[in-house]
Amino acid sequence: MSEGRVEFLYQTLKARAVGFEFRPGERINEGMVAKELNASRTPLREAMNRLVAEQLVEFRSGQGFFCRALDPTSIFELYEMRMIIETAAARRACQRATTSDIAALRDQLEADGLTTAGLTIREVVTRDEAFHLGIARLVGNSEVVRHLDRINERIRFIRWVDMGRRVRTTKGEHLKIMEALEARDSERAAAVLKTHVMRRMDEIVAAVREGYSNIFMADPEELFDRLVPDGD
Amino acid sequence: MSEGRVEFLYQTLKARAVGFEFRPGERINEGMVAKELNASRTPLREAMNRLVAEQLVEFRSGQGFFCRALDPTSIFELYEMRMIIETAAARRACQRATTSDIAALRDQLEADGLTTAGLTIREVVTRDEAFHLGIARLVGNSEVVRHLDRINERIRFIRWVDMGRRVRTTKGEHLKIMEALEARDSERAAAVLKTHVMRRMDEIVAAVREGYSNIFMADPEELFDRLVPDGD
DNA sequence: GCATACAGACCTGTATACAGCCCTGCGCAC
DNA sequence: GTGCGCAGGGCTGTATACAGGTCTGTATGC
Question: Start and end of every HTH gntR-type domain (chains A, B) (predicted)?
Fold first, then answer.
């Protein structure tokens, strides 16, 4: 808060938008939200406009701000975009990352533990994103990291759902990716990443469907604070 | 204007930011700009916040809005990001674009004429971007188009400089790319695109240097309204 | 029962006011 | 001549007020 009220509102509203605490298509009442966050509408609208530029919120002239839609096509496109950036990043990381930076990524991966047991869905996704951003950082191109981060925000909600849906083999696949990076095997790294990241349209449709049901439940936020399903 | 004052301000300010009509690092005086555009500071700041989210303008709490920096490293990173997206787009276009959509892109390319003679630098870059966005559109993924567009805005100024610097073989390379797309030869399309798009760091440093000298000249805008150098 | 028109409340869009901070420029001391 | 401190102006940050438009809900007619 000391570093700017708009910044605080931006972060708070972003978190809400990312997690679909505003329901898809819902009109966002500036007055109510402003009062709730102890601010006036002026800085709130400034923060909202940033979210509009990030596609986390929609704006219709004369009507105000609305929560973005949640539809399978958009999510699918975002997954593909994510795959494009990540595979390109992995290829470049294999070619130009320093051995010590790669080693640091492995350390980070191992520091997260060998299993996802005992973690909440949210925590697992956070760690997953951190690993993938770590790969992007190996490229040494801040734009790659930034774009990936922006995309992650927009699919994070569905990733929570997805992570809860099935026992993901996240950890094992991360290790495989890590090995490919250490071997500096671009093609293998890209190939493993591709299958690790990408989802089929029918999987996405199912996740979106479940996402909707979560959104309209009583306390949807708690859902993702439960522990991940046991890995076998 | 009818479709929202903020939208109008956003478009106007974006054009200025893209073309470095604000000088790099310059503080943007809200009061002056607002008066100039016949608006109050409230909608102006809303528009500015969108530009902040798009990295076209910087914001420092307590100090206001500043024009973004113009430095070779950022430009280089953006070029690489552009290359990542474009090569991935071309590969996918080869695989999944319909033959008629590809034919439509060729029509667009030929409608632009067989040479860049008689066009201003601005016009050539506009057409160049349109062709590349056309490839991105072949993928059928709106995110790919959007991200490419965002990146293009941030390097457009340097592309103007670059297009004026040397007789670019733009048109010929576009034809080669087009042929690769028609042959659905992913690898060739990606390879040609890569050399067509990418710039070496020393080229970028030179362009940025020239960019600065243009920015601090009397009437920098006219510079890019001159005709492109004769192609031999 | 259903569609339509109207009225009222509500909400958005923008201007403006004002408090507080930042920066500049001047003066003073060294 | 140079560095530091202080005061003033100017700019930013936010709240608030108000005008205009949008939506809702009701009442009326078919």
Answer: 3-70
What is the pLDDT of chain A when averaged over all its residues?
93
Q: Which nucleotides of C are covered by protein (CB under 7 A)?
A: 11-17, 21-23
CATH classification number, B5-67, choose in 1.10.10.10, 1.10.8.60, 3.30.2090.10, 3.30.70.100: 1.10.10.10
B78 → closest Cβ in A84, A143, A151: A143
Q: What is the mean pLDDT of residues A83-91?
A: 98
Backbone angles phi, psi at A55, to 5 degrees: 65, 20
The whole-angstrom distance between residue A129's C-alpha and the CA centroid of its chain comes to 7
pLDDT tens-place string over residues A15-55: 999 999 999 999 999 999 999 999 999 999 999 999 999 99
- Residues B177-228: pLDDT tens digits? 999 999 999 999 999 999 999 999 999 999 999 999 999 875 656 778 877 7
Please answer yes or no on whether A62 and B4 come within 8 Å at the CB atom. Answer: yes
pLDDT of residue A168: 66
Question: pLDDT tens across A124-163, in order?
Answer: 999 999 999 999 999 999 999 999 999 999 999 999 999 9
In chain A, domain spans: 5-67, 72-220
Tokens 């972060």 map to which residue?
A11
Cβ-based contacts under 8 A for chains A and B: 78
CB contact under 8 A, B7 and A61: yes
Fold of A72-220: Four Helix Bundle (Hemerythrin (Met), subunit A) (1.20.120)
Q: Name the residue type at position B65.
A: F
**Residue of B42, B84, B146 lying closest to A88 (CB–CB):** B84
Domains A5-67 and A72-220 share a fold: no
- In the sheet that B57-60 helps form, which strands lie side by side, from edge to edge? B27-28, B64-67, B57-60
Q: Which of residues 12-71 of A touch strand D (CB under 7 A)?
A: 38-43, 46, 62-63
Using the CA of A63, give the nucleotide whose C1' is nearest: C12
CA distances from B82 to A52, A227, B111, B166, B178 (A): 23, 39, 25, 21, 18
| Structural class in CATH, domain B72-219 | mainly alpha
Paired sense of beta strands B64-67 and B57-60, if any: antiparallel
